[in-house]
């Protein structure tokens, strides 16, 4: 009897120890969450649950409505989320612009060397008329020396959503008036404003909470081309739970489906290289699977040209450092040890080899839309988890590997760039 009782006590202790060591994780819907589930499930003592309630690790597309005060509050339970509390200081287009602007002013740098000329129009500001006049003066000046193509972007969207092109005043007015029509269909509280243009033309607008700001950015009219088509570069940046930040060694180039034609600004398949846009073209994937090529593919293409890929990568790393440093005043407020973030940085190169930052994205797309991404993304995520989740939860060594051509399976492909202090 005593032997049975002793055995039962041992079993209970063993069960309790096992449960104590288990890490329960929740993965929200969307953006290839299934891949995240698969990678986490391969870790010893990791178990999925269907709701974020009582989960240790929470993986979501957004940190909206998440209460950061619960992170690490209980000694017996570590709660971690895959978003930094203040990532918006660089992932929101408006905030990124102002962060870089302030940083460049302090360091005596020329911001126009980092990002294409940008204007932020705050429609809910008392200075909206002044801001609009500044843009129109610059717009008029540019019209004398180029085709004067501009992008209108919403500040909070990514993957090419909501981007419009224009190159004359009438088109700009039309886009502004379309904002007005959108606001008029909204049931939210609206505010009416009247904008007076330089030719005394007036635009009457009704704005709601979603349309308080617009981003106007100069379009790069002379991009470096790949086989006569436009491209941009997607690279990944990790900020870990101790605010170290890293650059993933392999990224990819996203290509347009149609040949570059600067005179046709109505065709977005020529100008916007986002996969979310290009995948709807009937000839999507005709030249490359998923309209994507690897760093090695581009290196071969640029072999006898300038710039060389290594030069491009070093410049991208430099700009990543600048963006992180520009946002340090908010990023270093993040509660250390229980949050991390994988960011998607987008760059372009002009025909002179100059590297331009286009934007920084939270929740970058991790869809495996090509054999290249089926190889890179699982490795990128798993290596990021080794630097974050496995450190936080003291995960036992795993045997699952995610091979990438040219690298050893036990090699972590995240290169440390610095630490936010």
Automatic annotation (TrEMBL):
Domain of life: Eukaryota
Entry-linked PROSITE patterns: TTL
InterPro entries noted in UniProt: TTL/TTLL_fam (IPR004344)
Record Pfam families: TTL
Protein name: Tubulin-tyrosine ligase
